[in-house]
Amino acid sequence: MEKNTPLITASWLAQHLEDPNLVILDTRFSLADPQQGQTEYQQGHIPGAYYLDLNKDLSSSIQAHGGRHPLPDWNTLVTKLNQLGIRSSSADGPTQVVIYDDSRFAFAARLWWMLRYLGHEQVALLDGGIQAWKSAGYALTTDAPTATTAKQTTEQTAEQTGDFHPTPQPDWLVDIETVRQRKDLPEVTVIDSRSPERWRGEVEPIDPVAGSVPGSINSFWKNVSTEDGQLKSADELSKHWAQLKPDDEIIVYCGSGVTACVNLFSLVMAGHPMHKLYPGGWSDWCSYL
């Protein structure tokens, strides 16, 4: 495979479908209908793709605090990644993971961030999601892969196919206490990734309280992509984030730590380092009000 890039095209993916060191992950999801993503996956997905569910695989159970989509138990996730055959190292290097959705990276970026947090750098998003794949004329399948398909060269069981060794990056995460203590410092910028009207507190369709973290600025996560789900160019993203000072501490949040990852992804694509995620987001913050 070519040198690692965080964003790949449908044509690149089509050319590499049979690569034994590739794992494709489908993360389609609907907050309004939690079964929709699984249903759409069963109706047709990119050949070889496994399905991971936002609620079941990419989040842990909701508690009194911590937000609507708390980060998952990392040991449970690592077990799942091993079952899918994802390897931290092999004769061909780390497994190339490609993730897609149909929501302008909303759910795919969450998993991209999680894999990066666990130290896996060979992970990319499919530009344009599954719609770009279909628009290019590539076929879908209803066949669900297993980790012991033809890509495996031995009789390994699903539990043995991967060799994923997590190396977490704890400094990429902040909790509510850290945000409270640091949000008003002159060198800290807190970014709210939700829609402007939610940030202003004019509407709140999901959480019980409207509003935003005091002192935060707003940068709507959908503004980094086009209507058809293509990420904007590096130059456009650099201009989009030009107001950020290079040496500032940047903390990004949204409603529940999902779409904030789209902004984090776009910042990386604009040449920034990985900034900090407040995963609880507004749903955590407002649970204390």
What's the story with the biggest beta sheet?
5 strands, parallel
**Mind telling me which CATH architecture of the largest domain this is?**
3-Layer(aba) Sandwich
Number of DSSP-assigned strands? 9
Shape: globular
The number of domains: 2
CATH class of the largest domain: Alpha Beta
Uncertain regions spanning at least 5 consecutive residues: 148-160
Helix share of residues? Answer: 25-40%
Tell me what you see in this structure.
- The protein has 289 residues and is an alpha/beta fold.
- It has two domains: 7-160, Rhodanese-like domain (Oxidized Rhodanese, domain 1); 170-288, Oxidized Rhodanese, domain 1 (3-Layer(aba) Sandwich).
- Helices cover 26% and strands 11% of the residues.
- The chain has ten helices and nine strands.
- The chain has helices at residues 10-16, 36-43, 74-83, 108-117, 129-135, 176-182, 196-199, 234-240, 260-269, 281-285, and strands at residues 7-8, 22-26, 49-51, 96-100, 123-126, 188-192, 217-218, 249-253, 276-277.
- A five-stranded parallel sheet has the order 1-5-4-2-3. A four-stranded parallel sheet has the order 7-6-8-9, with helices on one face.
- The radius of gyration is 19 Å and the shape is globular.
Keywords:
globular; 289 residues; 9 strands; Oxidized Rhodanese, domain 1; four-stranded parallel sheet; five-stranded parallel sheet; alpha/beta; single chain
Brief overview:
It is built from ten helices and nine strands. With 289 residues, it is an alpha/beta fold.
